[in-house]
Amino acid sequence: MVAAGEVVYPSAAEGVSEFVETYVVGRARDDSRRAAMVDAATELDDVARDWEGAAFADLPADDRDRLLRELGVDAADPVPDGTLSERLRFHVVNELLYAFYASPTGGRLAGIENPIGHPGGAESYRRATMDGPETTDSGGERDG
Amino acid sequence: MDRTPVDDADVCIVGAGPAGGLVAHRLAESGATVVVLEAGPRFDGDRREQLEQHIRPGLGGPWEMGGPRDAFSSSGESFYPLNAARVKGVGGSTLHWQGMVMRLHERDFELDSRHGVGADWPIGYDDLQPYYAAAEREFGVAGAADNPYAPPRDEPYPLPAFRPSHSDSIFAEACERLGIDMHSVGNARNSEPYDDRSPCVGYGTCKPVCPSGAKYTAESHVEKAEAAGARVIDRARVRRLEHDEAGERVVAAAYTTPDGETHRQEATQFVLACGGVENVRLLLLSDSDRYPDGLANSSGVVGRYFMDHLFAGAGGRLDRPTRQNHVGFNTSECHQFYDEADPVNGLKLEFLNYAGPSPVIDALHADTWGDDLLDQLDESYGTHVSMGALVEQLPREDNYVGLDRETTDDLGDPVPEIHWSVDEQTEAALSRANEIQARVLDELGVEDRWTVGPDETGPAYHHMGTTRMGDDPESSVVDAECRAHDLDNLWISGSSVFPTGGAMNPTLTIAALSLRLAESLRAELG
């Protein structure tokens, strides 16, 4: 998953290995979800060995990216029990993307420190910038 | 789980949404033996499961709607997406609602008298005012008395309003120049801890799921009802109400449980609280020799006058950050144009805090990743603004909920048929909303504009009007106490009793009427 994360996450992402281990693999709330992720990653590894002669994690990043695209994972619908590319989209690529962009880690790179799916408090919506102060109220008093 | 009937029940309530939950709680608290039959399941467990189901493609809907149980037909000019518009389960449609709560205006209760359109309610705003206040306390409404267009109120909201968003401050510049007033909006969502529920923590997915519990759901009152002794039977699909020989009283509700068994729940009083579509369906499925057109339908209007609110919207992009999609609710509205006479349909304007795409949802649907994806997200997120509006649809007899006897659900019962269209008068009101929205967006200099108007509009998923309330048994289904004209012990709770729907989100009015009904029913029980 870390090797896939290095491809799926933008180059600006830092600490990919720790993030994946903590928030992607560690996030799975039940064993079946974690097992499905491991199974999909194992299948990807098998394909890499067949097609490229090396484990997925041992391939250069560009080759990992190309392999996923050649498998059609970029265009595939995410389906938990679908075809190989659909399963890879669901259990590998979208597991990685969900954990990343539903957190401030990925959200901040896209311009939002409190993305949907993240319980980042009920104050950020009032700020004009990610790290600025809350906007001054305009209009009437709202003292209830 | 034991899903057999309760012995010696005083009250049988069909439906465990807000209408049923509030009545169940009030009556159970007063010592009545209450049983609630709910067609859907209890959604226990970690609500982050539903959060993920909402955000991630490939997991199905969070509330399991749309299977054979929920089959329906749509036969009108406008397709009605019924299963997007309701939830079956303990909590009902408050499981997926957004939680916007405001009172109807005084004029909404007397549209016929004032303007010669629609119908008058048999009660006025004054009658409902104390129940509105009680409903706000039950829900824990966050709001402020800063709305000069709101009907009179005697007490503050239970919780302080959510403060305006950064996006609101952008709109405020333009609105001030145009003389358009912005004010707070009532939210059934905790701005502070209330009723043992968390304050909002900003998951941003209010509709369809609030994982923190800050948004009110009727699960709250169902739990309180159970704590007060009520029995709630989930996955109990009521298929028929049976009446006595004289046709004066309902004697039992026949329901089927997941094991295929059918049971009869007897009770002294019956309350229908399963929404503006299923209330009708159950009455029509309960036809008999005495009532060949369906129960409580001697007027012939059960199912007629189906109404929804229509959405009008407009938006686009600015050349600066607008900070959208942090929260899933709105913090400002404008009710300035609500009471206008031309067009007479009520309309309210909303300033959205969730305009444009959310990066995580875009990412999960994208056909790329890595730096390419981030470039796309940079382009798609950050500068959107939009306004929404709800527009009133006046009651028309030819908009109706009926039975499609050619199509059956998985139990073999005819499915509901929704026959719905949007009339020209409503379209004119939608255009009026678009006109005001365009003035604001012009003033702001919004580009890349889009509009949702009469041609693109859709329903707001508020099912109203199908068992209308009135004094005349010839032209209405229930009386001012929400009791059926035809049967002494049958009560109907919910928006199906609304003679007109205004343009305000209906759930606070559903709650107020439910509390009022509970009081009348409690008196009846003695």
Automatic annotation (TrEMBL), chain B:
Disordered: region residues: 450-474
Keyword Protease annotated: no
Keywords assigned by UniProt, alphabetized: FAD, Flavoprotein, Oxidoreductase
Cofactor(s) needed: FAD
Domain 4Fe-4S ferredoxin-type: 191-220
Molecular function via GO: flavin adenine dinucleotide binding; oxidoreductase activity, acting on CH-OH group of donors
Pfam family of the protein (one): GMC_oxred_N
Similarity comment text for this entry: Belongs to the GMC oxidoreductase family.
Name of protein: GMC family oxidoreductase
Lineage of source species: Archaea, Methanobacteriati, Methanobacteriota, Stenosarchaea group, Halobacteria
